[in-house]
Automatic annotation (TrEMBL):
<keyword id="KW-0436">Ligase</keyword>
<dbReference type="Pfam" id="PF00733">
    <property type="entry name" value="Asn_synthase"/>
</dbReference>
<feature type="domain" description="Glutamine amidotransferase type-2">
    <location>
        <begin position="105"/>
        <end position="166"/>
    </location>
</feature>
<dbReference type="InterPro" id="IPR014729">
    <property type="entry name" value="Rossmann-like_a/b/a_fold"/>
</dbReference>
<feature type="site" description="Important for beta-aspartyl-AMP intermediate formation">
    <location>
        <position position="343"/>
    </location>
</feature>
<dbReference type="InterPro" id="IPR017932">
    <property type="entry name" value="GATase_2_dom"/>
</dbReference>
<feature type="domain" description="Asparagine synthetase">
    <location>
        <begin position="213"/>
        <end position="359"/>
    </location>
</feature>
<keyword id="KW-0067">ATP-binding</keyword>
<dbReference type="InterPro" id="IPR050795">
    <property type="entry name" value="Asn_Synthetase"/>
</dbReference>
<keyword id="KW-0547">Nucleotide-binding</keyword>
<comment type="pathway">
    <text>Amino-acid biosynthesis; L-asparagine biosynthesis; L-asparagine from L-aspartate (L-Gln route): step 1/1.</text>
</comment>
<dbReference type="GO" id="GO:0005829">
    <property type="term" value="C:cytosol"/>
</dbReference>
<dbReference type="GO" id="GO:0005524">
    <property type="term" value="F:ATP binding"/>
</dbReference>
<protein>
    <recommendedName>
        <fullName>Glutamine-dependent asparagine synthetase</fullName>
    </recommendedName>
</protein>
<dbReference type="InterPro" id="IPR029055">
    <property type="entry name" value="Ntn_hydrolases_N"/>
</dbReference>
<dbReference type="Pfam" id="PF13537">
    <property type="entry name" value="GATase_7"/>
</dbReference>
<feature type="domain" description="Asparagine synthetase">
    <location>
        <begin position="374"/>
        <end position="469"/>
    </location>
</feature>
Length: 512
């Protein structure tokens, strides 16, 4: 993960420098600029992005940023993303391994296929801008896992990894829509959409399905993680993070020896359920386990920082982002440069509690609706709460191959009837029931904020801070605000980003 800023038809280099400075934390190790004709591009990288030793961080590397291919150096790319099946296409395109390998591959795909390049990116998350100085080509992945924003002013165009890069230079700011590309005319074109109807359900027995799920997830992990820099794993004690951590623990021992222990990190507001279950899982895999226990005062202290970095005021997102921010910051102090996350399975396997309100026939539509919320809601936590601490995050369960396969799994296997209850993510749990402790596999789904305890602390607190009359008056001015908690967060957001078009970039979850 990294950060970039781009301007088009703008001759003021100081604006570009200010844009990239505002997101310095997304890549404090390498920085480079490219200026030619109508384009100015700036990119920052984390060390983990290109797996270079710190002593090799020199002007030589800075001069290679934004990245280019030696065969056609006129094209430059600003890029933020991860590509699961890089090796497959690198071999076909003749792209050798080494620094900036994905960037060089994207440039090669663009040169050879143009807009058809997206056919090769079904297992990639990305936001990028490619330019030769006179024209440019910008795009964002279908799910919107990688963030991208743009702004307009007169005939100038601004693009950046975060909203804060653009606010201040123009008030006309927008979220770059997922599954779209843009050219130098400013026109935005759709290249992919989520399906409206489910594929024909597979008629395969449960053992074959669970074996395939395990195989895809293991392959996704090994395609994305090589432990070239200090790597740890978030561990909430839920099924998602436990699956990822178990795979990571085995891979870590295989690489570093049978006594090697991967570092795991758990957070709780007091002795929360997450803390207790994470201990069970850490003991089970023999990890080097770290806990961070926080209280209300610590949560309130970091709320302004969280909302500034998150660029959102949605209550459910803010609640879950606070513990993520705190534990990521703690992991960074422990020397971690890459954190593994279990994000992704709730969308793929219907893990959210509200799915239980719908019939099997409605489930696919609701699943696609949920996935459609990722780009300006849930994926922000994954991206922002780690990168603001200069940590690269990898989520092996966010995989195009896994999503495509899971869409064909019969819905009754995802949300399994059990008497009067429904077991969410049943087929995912079934796939790992022989791998993990029973109490972890069949632990009911809780949002990160619930399991960690931050939801209980925050959801009712603001009744004391804001009167009914005050809330009613504010809601008349800002109808987007739904309750007092959201109003509290909204005020912090407005202090940083205003109450204009920036508000329209915020995604609000279905329920509070």
């Amino acid at each position: 993960m990294s950060g970039f800023a781009v301007t088009f038809n703008n001759n003021d280099c100081s604006e570009l420098e200010d844009m990239i400075r505002r997101i310095d934390y997304r890549g404090p190790y390498i920085f480079g600029k490219f200026e030619y004709s109508c384009i100015m591009m700036a990119q920052k990288y984390l060390r983990a992005d290109i797996a270079l030793e710190k002593e090799n961080m020199s002007e030589t590397w800075n001069n290679m940023v934004p990245a280019f291919d030696q065969d056609f150096p006129e094209l430059r790319i600003c890029y933020d993303g991860q590509m699961g099946h890089w090796k497959k296409y690198a071999k076909a395109c003749g792209v050798p391994n080494g620094p900036f390998r994905e960037e060089r591959l994207f440039l090669r795909l663009y040169r050879e296929h143009g807009i058809k390049m997206f056919d090769c990116l079904d297992d990639a998350i990305f936001a990028f801008v490619i330019s030769d100085g006179k024209k440019f080509f910008a795009a964002r992945d279908l799910l919107g896992i990688k963030t991208l924003f743009y702004g307009k002013k007169d005939n100038m165009l601004y693009l950046g990894s975060e909203l804060k890069s653009i606010i201040g230079f123009t008030d006309e700011v927008y979220e770059f829509p997922p599954g779209h590309y843009m050219d130098q005319t400013g026109q935005i074109t759709c290249f992919a959409k989520l399906p409206n109807t489910p594929p024909a359900p597979m008629r395969t027995d449960i053992d074959e399905i669970t074996a395939a799920v395990r195989d895809i997830i293991n392959r996704s992990f090994h395609n994305r993680i090589d432990f070239s820099v200090e790597t740890g794993s978030l561990l909430s004690g839920g099924i998602d993070s436990s699956v990822v951590t178990a795979i990571a623990g085995r891979a870590y021992r295989k690489k570093f020896g049978k006594n090697a222990r991967i570092k795991t990190f758990a957070l709780g507001v007091g002795e929360s359920e997450d803390i207790e279950c994470a201990r069970v899982m850490a003991d089970f895999i023999g990890s080097d386990h770290h806990e961070l226990i926080v209280d209300l005062e610590q949560i309130m202290d970091v709320l302004p920082e969280v909302i500034y970095y998150l660029e959102s005021f949605d209550p459910s997102l803010v609640r879950s982002s606070v513990p993520n921010y705190l534990i990521s910051r703690y992991a960074g102090k422990e020397g971690i440069e890459v954190l593994l996350s279990g994000e992704g399975s709730d969308e793929v396997f219907c893990g959210y509690q509200y799915f239980k309100n719908f019939s099997t026939q409605e489930l696919f539509a609701r699943q696609m609706e949920c996935i459609g919320f990722l780009h300006n809601n849930a994926s922000l936590r994954l991206d922002r709460m780690n990168l603001c601490n200069s940590i690269r995050v990898v989520a092996p369960l966010i995989s195009g191959e896994l999503l495509n396969y899971a869409m064909s799994i019969p819905p009754e296997y995802k949300l399994r009837p059990d008497g009067k209850q429904k077991i969410e993510k049943w087929i995912f749990r079934k796939a790992f029931e022989d791998v993990l402790p029973e109490e972890i596999v069949w632990r009911l789904k809780q949002e990160f904020s619930q399991g960690s305890g931050s939801a209980d602390v925050l959801s009712t607190l603001f009744e004391e801070f804001i009167t009914d009359d005050e809330f009613s008056a504010e809601r008349k001015k800002h109808p987007v605000v739904r309750n007092k908690e959201e109003l509290f967060y909204f005020r912090i957001f407005a202090e940083n980003f205003g109450t204009g078009k920036a508000v329209e970039t915020v995604g609000q979850w279905i329920s509070l």
